[in-house]
Structure formats: C-alpha cells, structure tokens
TrEMBL record:
Organism field: Citrus x changshan-huyou
Stretches assigned to the Disease resistance protein winged helix domain: 301-369
Residue intervals of the NB-ARC domain: 43-212
Pfam family membership, one: WHD_DRP
One Gene Ontology molecular-function label: ADP binding
Protein name per UniProt: NB-ARC domain-containing protein
Residues of the signal peptide: none
UniProt lineage: Eukaryota, Viridiplantae, Streptophyta, Embryophyta, Tracheophyta
C-alpha cells in the first residue's frame, strides 16, 4: 500500500478518504452553465426538457419528482442545469429555485433556503419549521414551480415526506429534479422512474479531451496525436470529468512521448480497493510538479462545494512557505497566481458558475485532494453537539473546520496537545451568522506556538490576549468580522507576519502603535473598519506592503499622508479617509500617489461634520497633489470641500479609467472635463448641491466625440439643478444606454 501511494506522490495515511468527515453545511451549486463547453448531451437535454414541460405526468395533479441518477463525474448537475436553463423551461415555471443539498438533509435549513431563493429580501432567520412551511405553502399556492435539489444523499423517507408538505399546494405540472448517485434515494424521492445518465460515447469523450488538451474539438491540427489520444480516452471510461482533467494535464504538450508516458503509467493498474480515486484523476495528480502537489493538497482545507477566491488560497500557500522560492524575480504572490493558473488549466480548480470571482473543486477532485493530503490535513465537520469530542492524528499539521454557532473547548478534543499544529482555520459558509468561541479556548490555542496560520474570523470576540505575541512563527492572522476594539501591542512582535486581515471589524478603533516593526507584512486588509481613528505612526516603514485597503489620516500626533511615500508596492484598492486632517499641502505631495502604478481603485474621502468649517483652499491643494498614476481604473472623490477640481482630473492620459464617482462635493459649482476620458464607462454625480448646469467644459474642448465609451450616467440629489445639457453638446450622453437620476436628457 505504501509503495503504491509513493508512486502517486501521496502522503502515507491510515485515514485515506475518510480523513475528512463530510461537512453538513455546504454552499450551493449554481444553476448557471456554459453550454459551449458541453458535448454529447443534446439528446439528454431534450429528454429532460420534455419531461419538465409535460403537465400530465401524474393523474392526481400533484407535483412530479424526476431523479437523475449516475456515477460521480458523469455530469448529473450539468444535465440538470441544461434542463433548468432551457428557454422554454424558464418561461414555463414561476417560481424557480436551485438548492445544493449534499450530505445534510436538514428540513428547516432547506426550507429556509428555498424561501429566500423565491422571495427576495425576506427575513426567515427566526421562524420555526411550522412557520417556514406555512410561508412556503403560501408562496406556492396555485403556482407552477420548478425546484432542483442537487447532490442528495439522504435515504430517510420520513425526512422527505416532512420536507415536501408545502409543495402539495402548488399548481398541476410543478416539478422537482433530484440529482443523486444513490439509486435508493431516487426510489424514495422519485414519483417517476429514475433518469439514468449514461457514460459519454468514446467520440464525445474524445471531443471533451481534445477541447481541453488542444483547444479544439478534434485533432485536425495535430493528427500525429489522434491515435494515442483515442487510447487515453478509452481509459476515461466515458466520464466527462476524467476526459477534462486529463486534457488539462496535456494542454500545451504536443510531444508524443509525453502522451505515451501518460498512457503507459502504472497508476492505471492500481486496484480500486487500494486507490479509491478515479484512475484518470490519479494520473493527472501524479504528473503534477512537486510544488503543485503541495499547493493542491492544501486545497483540501476547503470543504466540498466551498467557493473560494484566488487570493484566499494564495495567502494560505504563502503562510505555509510554498511561495518562498524566488523565480525570475517574481514576488511570492506572483508565483501563487502562476500556480493557481496551472491548477486551473489542469481542471483541478474550476470557476464558479455562480460567481466569476470565486472557484470550486469538483467533488471527486476534492476527494483526490483529501487523499493526497493524508493525515497532515484534516477538515472537521460541523456538529451542534458542543460536547462531542474529536480525536486527531498525531501527524496533524493543518486543521480547518466548519465554524459553528458556538464552538466549545470539547469540540476540539486533544487538539491542544498537538504542539506542531501549523494551521487553525475556521471556514465560514454563506449566510452564516457570527459565532461564539468559548472564552477558555483562546488561551489554549495561543499555546500552540508552531502556528503559521491562525484565524478567528467571524467570532464575537471582544479582545485578543497579549499572548498572541508569543506566536513567533505566525505568518497569517485573520481577525476579520470580530468585535475587537484595539489590536494588542504584542502583535507588533510578530516579526514574521505576512498577512493581517481585519476586514469588517467595524468596532476596531486602534491598531498597535509599533506596527512599523512588522517589516515582512505584505497584506493589511482593513476594509470596512469604520471606527478606526488613525493609522499608527511608522506604518510607512512597511515597504513590502502590497495590500492596504484603508489609510485613515490622523489628527495632530497621528500618522500623515507622507507615511504613504515609500509604500510603492501597493496594489488593488486604497481608500484614504479623514483627509480634512491634512493641514499642509506638502504632506499630500509627499504621498506620491502618482508613483503607485499598481493601484487599480482609489477612494479619496473627506469626512463631513454638519457645521464643519471647510478650508477650501487647503482642500483644493491637497486634491491637486493627490494625483494618482494613470493606470487607475476606478476613482471616487467623496466629501471634497474645494470649490473646483484640479485640471488633471479628466485628462485623457487616464486611459484606463472606467468608473468615476463624485459624491457630496458640496462646494463645487461645476464638474471637471471628463468627456475626454477614452475608457470611461460609468459616471456617477451625487449630492453636489451647487452644480446648476452642465457647461461645455464638462465635455472637453479637445475631443470631437465626448464620452466615447460611456454606458451608465447617474445623477442624484442635485438640489440647485437648473439646466440640463446645452444644445449641440449632448452626443456622448445620448449614447449612454443607461441614464439614471432625478431627470435625464
């Protein structure tokens, strides 16, 4: 067994696939589908759509349940999506809902999810099951609904009967699609015979393989590879996922020898009882470079169906030391993006169809990651049994768990004895409320002094013990969503800290005074920290910073804009607030925003205090000196008290600027000349009470066609507005497809 695992490059594990307990709270799959990437399912799509459109499937007029049954990786969810998104089906049903069920068939939670899917903005958090079902029944009375229950495992007939009670009020022809690997589930839930999804034909499987390996549906441009490609596809056994993954493995590899190596690999011959992984996936894993094997195994920290952002996993890779190796002068983050892209190209990671900025692993790929990770990784299920103890392997190094409503000491069993633990990571699923952590847990956790990753995200924690400063190896600290008011001074002793996450800490008032000591810090994610009073003096010494979401200008002894001078690596989004505290224009000049070429989004905010006395000349000078780099893509000015805007604003050199917003700039009587911005698509003007009209200067004199790319123009709360667009100057605005406001030309 060990020899066979070594051939795969896997860790030795006595736990195997059972090492990760199935979580009971998974995020939803999505109903969206890219039909251009699907082959060989035209007949199946037509048949499912016809079943959905028939209203006479049952003589008693009740709703019908159509089970789709098949092996993992066969495309059951994809087929359900094809039927759900058929144009005729979309017009035939109302309401419609798509629910990912997975392991936890919790009737109350499922009913809540359906209600929130079909009734926007309805608060159902505090309703018991009886009230939930009454409300759902009310919403379905006389309506022809379509519901998809994706990935169902529960065989309990009584659960199904209780869950389905509200559906009886619906109109004739209502349908429920159930996808499952389990034929017994299909028999329990189905009112119709199960639709058994067959394997793809070799020809269709070959088209999938060719698309992902060569970028085309056939081998016309690489005829020498066709014969060996057909042999590889036979080993995919008709599974689209296998063909896609093997195609990704060979993408860009046109050397016949490489293809022959894959075909002749001994991994194909491993018996199923020794390696319960689809052979094609095991082969794909085997041929990963060692560093990608490490990165992929680390993805096992995320539970099945969990949707994550690229940066989320890259920061964890970095904290575990996977990105320390320098390559062609790339930063660690650049390496992380490269590795992420390679895993995507090999189909180990796939883009969420629900949210294009998030990613997910197929269930079977997740199984492979768990197998690869061995006993060094463990993902713990959520349980409402607070006193249920969990035992951990002595080889454990990385722990993640589904965060509960209340997590007590007992839940983590003997974890506190594992002194070599490196990762403690709660995973929060969508729509979760803040959770509670037993007060006695923190001191115990902070004794695990080998930690590299420590997260308390989303817990209602009021303060962090000073002993956090003893975690001298810590590289990643996540306190986002907690209720802390101050950051302990001991945090400034975490000299190896790479990432400090404080997002949504809306009670946070103060950072540690000596934060400038954290010279290895790359990411300070502090967005939505509305109570933060100022940045600590010396933060300008953090010259490795790439992420600084919010910079709060201090009063008197607080840090000023000049602290930004040496932070030349900043990228992404930066919001500079409390700009009314800048008393000297030279401080704004020292910020040198025009040298921060990697910034994509910039917010400049002055805070309004009712009768606040404006220093208009100073504010005009400050804004003039805060000219950003021309690579900027999004720009917002809010609360500005100057009487006019600087001349650089609207200059055509800002060729990448797509979104521009002016908010509550009360003293300005005219808008800047933004008509010459070549890429501007979205323009918002809000709360500018002294602007009375749009003059010709708004369009710019040098451009024959102002606003060449404008798509959205929004005007709101212009109290002194008198006159709209001058005659003969409106062609740019006329082309805007969307014009929103109190009035619109």
């Amino acid at each position: 067994m060990v020899t066979q695992k070594n051939s795969l490059g896997l860790n030795v594990s006595s736990a195997g696939l059972g090492r990760t307990t199935k979580n009971s709270q998974r995020q939803e799959t999505s109903s969206l589908v890219n039909e251009a990437e699907i082959y060989g399912r035209e007949t199946e799509k037509k048949e499912i759509a016809e079943l959905l459109l028939r209203d006479n499937l049952r003589n008693d007029g009740r709703f019908s349940v159509i089970p789709i049954v098949g092996l993992g990786g066969l495309g059951k969810t994809t087929l359900a999506r094809l039927g759900y998104n058929d144009d005729r089906v979309q017009n035939h049903f109302d309401p419609k809902a798509w629910i990912c069920v997975s392991d936890d068939f919790d009737v109350t939670k499922l009913t809540k999810t359906i209600l929130t899917s079909i009734v926007a903005h309805q608060n159902v958090d505090n309703l018991n099951l009886n009230k939930l079902q009454e409300e759902l029944k009310k919403q379905l009375v006389g309506k022809k609904f379509l519901l998809v229950l994706d990935d169902v495992w529960n065989r309990n007939y009584n659960d199904w009967v209780e869950f389905s009670l509200p559906f009886g009020a619906s109109a004739r022809g209502s349908k429920i699609i159930v996808t499952t690997r389990d034929e017994k589930v299909a028999k329990i839930m189905g009112t119709l015979p199960a639709y058994e999804l067959k394997k793809l034909s070799d020809n269709d499987c070959l088209a999938v393989f060719a698309q992902h390996s060569l970028g085309t549906r056939d081998f016309s441009s690489h005829m020498s590879l066709e014969d060996i490609g057909k042999k590889i596809v036979i080993k995919c056994n008709g599974l689209p996922l296998a063909a896609k993954t093997l195609g990704g493995l060979l993408r860009g590899q046109h050397d016949r020898g490489v293809w022959e190596d894959v075909l002749s690999s001994k991994i194909w011959e491993l018996p199923e009882d020794r390696c319960p992984i689809i052979p094609a996936l095991a082969v794909s894993y085997y041929y990963l470079p060692p560093i990608l094997k490490q990165c992929f195994a680390h993805c096992s920290l995320f539970p099945k169906d969990y949707e994550f952002e690229e940066e989320e996993i890259i920061l964890l890779w970095s904290a575990s030391g996977f990105l320390d190796r320098k390559e062609r002068e790339k930063t660690g983050e650049d390496l992380g993006r490269k590795y992420f892209k390679e895993l995507r190209s090999r189909s180990f990671l796939q883009q969420s169809s629900n949210n294009k900025s998030r990613f997910v692993m197929h269930d079977l790929v997740s199984d492979l990651a768990q197998w690869a990770a061995g006993e060094m990784y463990f993902t713990m299920e959520y349980t409402s049994e607070v006193n249920k103890q969990q035992r951990f392997s002595r080889y454990l190094r990385h722990l993640s768990y589904i965060r509960g409503d209340y997590d007590g000491v007992q839940r983590f069993g003997d974890l506190y004895d594992i002194q070599h633990l490196r990762t403690f990571l709660p995973v929060i699923l969508s729509n979760s409320k803040p959770g509670y952590l037993a007060p006695s847990m923190l001191p115990k956790l902070l004794k695990l002094q080998s930690l590299r990753v420590f997260s308390l995200r989303g817990y209602r924690i009021l303060e962090l013990p000073d002993s956090v400063g003893d975690l001298r190896y810590l590289r990643y600290l996540n306190l986002s969503g907690t209720e802390i008011r101050t950051l302990p001074e001991s945090v400034s002793k975490l000299y190896n800290l790479h990432s400090l996450l404080l997002e949504d800490c809306d009670r946070l008032e103060k950072l540690c005074a000596d934060m400038g000591n954290l010279v290895k810090l790359h990411h300070l994610k502090n967005s939505n920290t509305k109570s933060l009073e100022e940045m600590p003096i010396g933060i300008g010494r953090l010259t490795c910073l790439q992420t600084l979401c919010s910079f709060v200008v201090g009063k008197d002894s607080g840090s000023g804009l000049r602290e930004l001078k040496l932070l030349t690596q900043l990228r992404g989004t930066l919001c500079i607030s409390n700009l009314e505290n800048v008393k000297h224009i030279v401080d704004a000049e020292d910020a040198q925003l025009d040298r921060k070429e990697n910034l994509k989004e910039l917010w400049l905010r002055w805070t309004l205090y009712g009768s606040y006395s404006r220093e208009a000349e100073t504010e005009m000078g400050v804004l003039d000196m805060l000219k950003p780099h021309t690579n900027l893509e999004q720009f917002c000015i809010k609360g500005y008290g100057g009487m006019k805007f600087p001349t650089w604003l609207g200059d055509s050199s800002f060729s990448k600027l797509v979104t521009l917003k002016f908010k509550n700039c009360d003293m300005c009587t005219a808008l800047p000349s933004v008509g010459q911005l070549p890429s501007l698509k979205h323009l918002t003007v809000r709360g500018m009470s002294k602007v009375k009209r749009l003059g010709s200067e708004f369009y710019g004199d040098d451009s024959p066609i102002p606003f060449p790319r404008l798509e959205t123009l929004r005007f709101e709360d212009l109290q002194e507005w008198e006159d709209w667009i001058p005659h003969g100057s409106s062609q740019g605005v006329e082309r805007a497809p969307s014009c929103i406001g109190d009035a619109c030309y």
